[in-house]
Amino acid sequence: MNNKKYYPTALALYFTYFIHGIGVSILGQYKQNFAGAWGADKLSNGTFDVSMVLAVIAALGLGRLITLPFSGPISDRFGRKISGLIGVVLYVAYFIGIAISPNMYVAYAFALLGGAANSFLDTCVTPSCLEIFVNSGDVANMFTKFSISIGQFLLPFIIGFIAASNMSYTTIFFVTGIALAIDGILIAIAQFPPKNGNVNTTKDTPIESEKMKFTATSIAVICIGFTCTSTFQLWLNCNQELGKLYGLANPSQIQTYYALGSMAAVLVTAALVKSFLKPVRILVIYPAISAIMLLIIYFVQTPEICLIGGFIIGYSAAGGVLQLAVSTANSMFPTNKGKITSIVMIASSVANYVILNAASYISKSGGLEGPKYVLIFNVVITAVGILLALFVNKQYAKAEIK
């Protein structure tokens, strides 16, 4: 099979994740705007209470969670293209819908659609990349994160341009929705590789899905999808308030450093995984770096530490850990890639919903000190992820000895 003919398809799929990078971050950057538009109460320092916006962001995880049980089987049965096109349509609806939402409740409904879009893109893009780049699956899957990071890196500059041009903050939502719709047309006419085309089989043997048998190791990898998502989502959606608390003049800079860190991580980690470092080792090392950095940020309360922390956490928490967890899980279930991708992403979505709702409560209960309490909460969740990864590494070491 000449996989080079599918490279344009891969490019179109990576572009959906570039837009997703904007989509997953943009509400966090405009929390004050949306809080004001949706009638939030004002705090003693004159800013709006953003807890309702955090609740809407959490709805992205709920929408993803509701649809992942269906998106994986749909991808495996009807094809990656169908799953991808459903995702594009729902994501376009999310961008346009959020921009025109008159209140939190309407926005919540469109956020559910955005989460559903994410689930269908996950079960299209990840299996497709593994089937296009047969010999570099781990690296190819990490570059989905690189695409997300580019979107997150460019977002602050786009926001700055929109503000300087005196355009409404909703402009970005309309522009990204249109760009994604155009990309959807390209995906509709693109060629996709055969499903399970990267599974070794004899020429005349049909590739059929086998019954999935879960072990303690595979369950631990799935749970890592929860913990690693919690680490970067808590930081991504609460760093602006932390920056203000620590006296950072322009908290949006944190997003730029975060995105730079995640992009650097993908490039460095791709090289490490390609040469000598096993993906399961990354699952321990990077969360450990995140936990240490979060503790440093808690104790060293300066504006500069927010920027340094943004880069380090971007590198260690958002630099491909989730993607490597998905790739590791896919290697355990090679004929059920859509389903196992769904399952890991379900764990990720549970984190998105449960953890961000918890963060909303912690932030509201803690008042002006709320962001610091969220940091400690993040450390605890990340530490659980480290323990899970240590267990997975131990089981892999035992398998190698056998």
UniProtKB/TrEMBL annotation:
Entry-linked SUPFAM superfamilies: MFS general substrate transporter
Parts of the chain that traverse the membrane: 12-30, 50-70, 82-100, 146-165, 171-193, 214-236, 280-301, 307-328, 340-362, 374-392
GTP-binding among keywords: no
Domain of life: Bacteria
Cross-referenced PROSITE patterns: MFS, SUGAR_TRANSPORT_1
Protein localization: Cell membrane
Pfam families recorded: MFS_1 (PF07690)
InterPro entries per record: MFS, MFS_dom, MFS_trans_sf, MFS_Transporter, Sugar_transporter_CS
Keywords per UniProt: Membrane, Transmembrane, Transmembrane helix, Transport
Protein name in UniProt: MFS family permease
Organism encoding this protein: Clostridium beijerinckii
